[in-house]
Amino acid sequence: MENISGKIPVTILTGFLGAGKTTLLNNIIRKYSDKRFAVIENEFGEIGIDGGLIVGNISNMYELSNGCICCNLSEGLQQTLNNLLTSRYQFDNLLIETTGIADPAGVIDNFVAYEEFQRKFVIDSVICLADAMTYEESAEEQPEVHRQLAVADIIILNKIEDVTPEQGQRVKKLIQSVNPTAKMYAVSHANITNCDIINTFAYTSGNIEKLVMDFKNATPLKFDMADMDNFSSGFAKNPNNKHNDAFHHSIVSEGFTVEGDMDEAKFVNWLQAVLQYNSASVFRVKGILSIKNKNKKFILQSVRQYFLVEEGEEWKPEEKRFTKLVFIGKKLNREAILGYLESFIVK
C-alpha cells in the first residue's frame, strides 16, 4: 500500500540522545530504496545523512543519489513542510527525525490540528529507538524517554548485542510496561533488514481497532460515583495501584471495557476536558466506541490534547455493543476513569 486516499505517509522517528537514530535513518533510506523519501532532520540543525548519499545542496535542501531529498528544520516544521510541498521534488514518503530531547507529540500535532496538512499527509507511524545499554539509566533520569515510548507505534530496541540476555529481557519488560500496544523489534546496529516499519499505517482505524481488541488489561471494576469530584480527580494517582511500582516509573497502561452505548455528547465533553487539562499526564488514548443510535463502531485515538474519531465497521446484529479504551499516561487512577465511562452509558 503506497498511500491512503492519495495522501503522503509520514513516519516520525524519535528516541533519546545516542540511541542511534541517524544510523536508523540511513538504514531506512537504504532498505526502502524504491521509495522517494523527503527527510526532515531536527537534530540541532545538523544533517546526519550519510555523506556518500548526498549529491547536491539546493536552497537548504540536500539532494540524495537515490532521488530522495533532505532538509533541516531551520524555519520551523510548518514552513519546512510548505517548502517541501512547493519544491520541484516529488516524494511519496516523509520521514521526520526529532531531536533526542524532544517530545514527538509536538510534531504529531501538526498533522492532526491543521487542516491543510491533513489534506496532504497521513501519519504512518511513530517509531521510537531505545538503547538497550542505557535505557534503564536514562529512563530513571529523563522523563522524555517515557513520553517518546508512550506515543510510539513501533519500538526498535537497539544495541541488543551489547547486553546480556537477562538484561535484554528486563529492558523489554520495562518498555512493554510503558507501551504494551507497540510492536517491538530487538536489533543490533539499527539493522532493520527483518523489520517491517514503513507503510505499516499504524494510525489507521483498522490497526487501532485490532490493537485495542488485543489489549488484555480491561477487567471491569466497581466504582462509587460519589467519589468523582471533578475531571482532574480521575487522573490523580491511585494509592492502591501497585502494578507498576516494581518498574520504578509512574507511566501506566490501563484498559477499560464497558458494555452498552455511550451518550456521545457527555463522552466527548469529558474527553475534551481530560485531554485539555491533563495533557501532561495523559499521553495517548486508543479505543473503540459504541455510540447510541449509531450503526457503526467509532475508532478513537489521541496524542496529548488532540483526538481523532473515524468510522469503523458496522456492529453485527448478534454483537453485544461495548466501548473499550486504552489509556497510556502518568499516574492514572483506574477506578475513577472507569467510573466516568460507566456514567456515560445510556440506560
Briefly say what this structure is.
29% of the residues lie in helices and 27% in strands.
Characterization of this structure:
This protein is of the alpha/beta class and 347 residues long. It folds into 2 domains: 8-201, P-loop containing nucleotide triphosphate hydrolases (Rossmann fold), CATH 3.40.50.300; 206-343, 2-Layer Sandwich (Hypothetical Protein Yjia, Chain: A,domain 2), CATH 3.30.1220.10. It contains 10 helices and 14 strands. The strands form 2 sheets. Strands 3-4-5-2-6-1-7-8-9 form a 9-stranded mixed β-sheet. α5 (135-141) crosses α6 (143-150). The longest helix is centred in the middle third of the chain and has 14 residues, at 165-178. It starts with 7 loop residues before the first strand and ends with a helix. The model is unreliable at 43-47, 50-58 and 218-248 (pLDDT under 50).
Write the layout of secondary structure elements.
Elements: E1 8-15, H1 21-31, E2 37-41, E3 54-58, E4 61-64, E5 69-72, H2 77-86, E6 93-97, H3 105-113, H4 115-120, E7 121-131, H5 135-141, H6 143-150, E8 154-158, H7 165-178, E9 183-186, H8 205-214, E10 251-259, H9 264-277, E11 282-289, E12 296-303, E13 306-314, E14 322-330, H10 334-343
Parallel strand pairs: 1-6, 1-7, 2-5, 2-6, 7-8, 8-9
Antiparallel strand pairs: 3-4, 4-5, 10-14, 11-12, 11-14, 12-13
